[in-house]
Amino acid sequence: MTAPERIQRFIETFNYNLASYKKGSYKETQVRREFIDPFFEELGWDITNKRGHAEAYKDVIHEDAIKVGGSTKAPDYCFRVGGKRMFFVEAKKPSVNIKEDIHPAFQLRRYAWSNKLPLSILSDFEEFAVYDCRVKPNKNDKVSHSRVLYFKYTDYLDRWDEIAGIFSKDAIYKGSFDKYVEENKLKKGTAEVDDAFLEEIERWREILARNIALRNPGLSQRELNFSVQQTIDRIIFLRICEDRGIEGYGRLMALLNGDNVYARLFALFRKADSKYNSGLFHFRKEKGRENYDKLTPNLVIDDKVLKDIFKNLYYPDSPYEFSVLPTEMLGHVYE
Q1: Measured between alpha carbons, how far is residue 112 from residues 34, 79, 87, 320 in Å?
Q2: In the structure, what pLDDT confidence band is assigned to residue 219 with cuts at 50, 70 and 90?
Q3: Range of the domain at 312
Q4: Strands 84-91 and 119-123
Q5: Last residue of a domain, one of 136, 151, 183
Q6: What whole-number distance in Å separates Cα of residue 268 and Cα of residue 271?
Q7: Predicted confidence (pLDDT) at residue 60 exceeds the cutoff of 60
């Protein structure tokens, strides 16, 4: 039996049960196992690692980051070649309207844009939407924003050559995926996540510097620079730890409620000092470590400034998915 013939069988089975799927009686995991997994197997991907490859070389990683609370979680699938991420697939239940619902599209685009992936897919098998993820996502974008392909399951047979020509494993090896990416680049509004994130950091740096200088007039220029950079680095470190499941999700966001924000933030810094034993959080004298931070524990920073930063660290205001941000980007921040 050929791949199109097997796809036809999937279509017939799906169509026969569509009414019950639409009522929500089918769970997302069932749709993935019975339809989406075999769909991508027909495209040449080793979905269940039948070849027994080591973790670093698996074709597909399921939920390619640790699930966390709140509104964020890992992408359902990450398709890779030689350990390099190529595209994400986010799977939904058939009861979700992929063509019209803005939230799944924004979620997918945050994942892929944060990880610098050019294309990614949103699908419940009934619908198949491809997004150009080089465009910085905004929570107010229309669902069609940056969508470059859209199919219904009834289109799969007629469009199979097109789908396989872009997203099959063979297409990756032959360069067809890269060629499609380059030929269909949406020039308008594209922004690399590195540039956008560093631009956001510069904004934080400016508002923090102005406020710290105002509230702590005795600081030298060197002390001011140190205070600003350490505060930003510590906040980013804790936020990444949240999305990677190392710290409880939403602890920084909780500081939006109430007053004395810097004092409460610094309590988190002190806990991190005990937990990580890192130079980033080093506030007390220890044997063999004479240099420690005596400056930032005594700073005065207005609540409004810090709340502005925290608000832009979380879904839906933040376009960044910190669980998949490339690690080299942190090096750029420190530089």
Answers
A1: 25, 12, 7, 9
A2: very high
A3: 193-334
A4: parallel
A5: 183
A6: 5
A7: yes
